[in-house]
Structures are given as structure tokens and as C-alpha cells.
Amino acid sequence: MHIPYILQSVTRGTYNIYCKENSHTPVAQEMSRHRAYPGIVDVARAAGVSPSTVSRAFSRPGHVSEATAQQIFDTANRLGYRSGTITPLTVGKPKHRLILLAVSDISNPAFAQLIRNTQHECMRQNSGLLIADTEETKMNERDSLHDLNNVDGVLLASSRLSDTMIRKFARHHKVVMINRMVRGLPSVIPDYRPGFESAVARLIALGHTGVTYLTGPEASYAEGMRWRTLSDVCKEKNMSLKRLPCKEPTFEAGRKAFSQFMQQPDSTSVIAYNDLQAMGFIAAAQQQQIDVPQRFSIIGIDDIADCTLLSPTLSSIRIDRRKESKAAVAMLFDNDNADAHTSLKVPTQFIERNSVSIPGSDH
């Protein structure tokens, strides 16, 4: 029997996810028990950093150096901070054959790829798929997770919620993270290093000495990982790196970033947070009759289908969405395999096209 697939947009609304409980309720007693375990303050004290640094290391990795983050993670592991797997209060075989996939922006082709591949995996599991478009806002994402008694599990893709809120939700629903890590929960995340190493090495081979990075949303875990990984790779390869703030992962944001870039155009290459920004950047350059890639090379991230429709075709760092979806759905439905409670890294790959070349060359 095939179950129909359901597409749902999040309806705007508010509700209070907190409730007042007296000290004798099970919720209050559970919270009291949790206080016996090490918290952020304990980790910060043992690691010799501030509590805010510990918080950033887990939720916004781009704001903490790799060395400091590793020190914090090692300390957290030693103290047992959030080291146990979070198991929902009721775990069993799927009853409703329906799962929820929450994505940050359904209009982004990268998430469209993820949705399609997840749907195919659900078909193999004979399960239905419910889609929630959170529109890059915490409020919409929070609302999409309200009253989910009819789903067997939830896939949170590029979640903007806090670790604490996600962990509380996971005590009542089985959750798998995609493009985000939360301690105690299974996750599938891209390994950006292979893609960035190949991209930067290629730029250096072509004669580029500096790169400007167009940032993504500040609250995005992926933004933090992309920036940190690119920073480490550029440092290792002695490549100059600048950061150009770009608040939204959109085509229009890329167009606006071009104007900022041209105020001080001292880099001959650009790597954007995603392909949409890169496409907007190229469009703005062409409108000003500035040649790409003769004036500067540009690389996106995601390798969406539109990369090959652009002129010049866009070089990009590919994330294997099929592998992401397959692993995430398998984790969600696997109640017995211990490996389902670990994190899986999906390698990235640099795909070179016509948007990169030797600086100043005819193309």
C-alpha cells in the first residue's frame, strides 16, 4: 500500500512551549534530576573559557577557532556533558508510516533536492512524507514541531532552533539532524574539507592569491562550518582570505554583495555561501559589464541544477543530497542498530566549470 505524500506550509501562529509546573510534577522532577549532570558552566570552568564560548562552540562553530572548539569538545566528553543518546519516552516500530521533514527554505533548490531524495527514500520505506517550510525563522520552525502525534519521526534540516529546544523536543519524538550537529542525537552532515581543499588548490594553481567569502545567515550551523573549514584550508595553503557579510542565502543578496565587493575589489576569486548568492553576484557583475571569470573567478556551494544553465557555467562544491537523505531516513527508522545513534559525514566534491580561470585571462 502506498501512502500519499503531503506538502504542508507552516501556518503562522504562536503558542507557549513552556508551562509552569509545581515541584511535584514529573516534568519538574525530571528537570531536577538533570541538574545533577554537568552543564555549560562546568565545561567552561574546566576548559578555561567563558560559558558563551562553550555555547558558540556547539551552536555556531564559525565563531570559535578549531583548536578552542576541540578543547571544549574534549572537556565536554571527559565530563559527560550531554554525552548520552537522547531516547524518546516512547520508542517502537513505526505506527503511522509518516515522517516530518522541516527545511529552512523550500524555494531554495538545494532543499528541493533534499526533499525529492527524502521522498524517494520514504517510498522505499512505504512511508508518507510531511514537509514543513520554516522560512528561515525560529518561530515558524518551532510552530511546525507543535502537535506531532501522528508522525513517527522528524528530520530537522539546517535547523535554526537552539540545542536546548531541540533536545527537549527529542525527548518526546525521534529526531535526526541534517546539516547540523546536536550532542546526543543522530546526525548527517557534509564534510566540507575535501571540497574546499580541491577548490582552493585549483584557484592557487590558476594563479589566485586571495579569496573573498560571501557569508550565509548568522544563525546557520552550516555557515559556521563552511567558514571555519575554508579558513583552515586557506591558512594551510597560505591563501589570503577575506569575509564579506551577506545576511541571506539568496540571489538578491548575492547581487547586493557585488556592490560591496567592488568598493574594495582586492581579491581575484570569490567563494559564496551557496550557489544562489554566486549566481546573483555574477548577474550583478555582468550588468556592470564586468567579465567573469576574467576579472575574478567565483565558486558556489550546493551544485544545484541551475549551475549548468548559467553563462558562464558555475563551479560549485557538491553535497551528495541523495546520500544525506538515505542515511537520515535509515537512522530514523532503525530502532535497533547502535550505529543509528552516531553522526555520519558526507564528503563534498569540487565541480569545476567555466566560472574559474587564470586571473586576467581571456576566456
Task: Explain this structure.
The chain has helices spanning 26-34, 40-47, 51-59, 66-79, 109-124, 138-144, 163-170, 192-206, 221-236, 251-263, 275-287, 321-333; strands at residues 6-9, 98-103, 128-133, 153-157, 175-178, 187-191, 210-214, 240-244, 269-272, 297-302, 315-319, 343-351. The protein has 363 residues and is α/β, with parallel strands linked by helices. α9 (221-236) links the parallel β7 and β8 (240-244).
Contiguous helical run count: 12
Stretches with pLDDT under 50, minimum 5 residues: 1-35
Shape, per Cα inertia axes: globular
Oligomer: single chain
Helix content percent band: 25-40%
Widest sheet, order of strands: 1-3-2-4-5-6-12-11-10-9-7-8
Q: How would you briefly describe this protein structure?
A:
By secondary structure, the protein is α/β, with parallel strands linked by helices. Helices cover 39% and strands 18% of the residues. The radius of gyration is 22 Å and the shape is globular.
Name the descriptors:
363 residues; globular; disordered N terminus; 12-stranded mixed beta sheet; 12 strands; alpha/beta; 39% helix
Fold topology:
Layout lengths: L5 E4 L16 H9 L5 H8 L3 H9 L6 H14 L18 E6 L5 H16 L3 E6 L4 H7 L8 E5 L5 H8 L4 E4 L8 E5 H15 L3 E5 L6 H16 L3 E5 L6 H13 L5 E4 L2 H13 L9 E6 L12 E5 L1 H13 L9 E9 L12
Parallel strand pairs: 1-3, 2-3, 2-4, 4-5, 5-6, 6-12, 7-8, 7-9, 9-10, 10-11
Antiparallel strand pairs: 11-12
Helix pairs in contact: 2-3, 2-4, 5-12, 8-9, 10-11
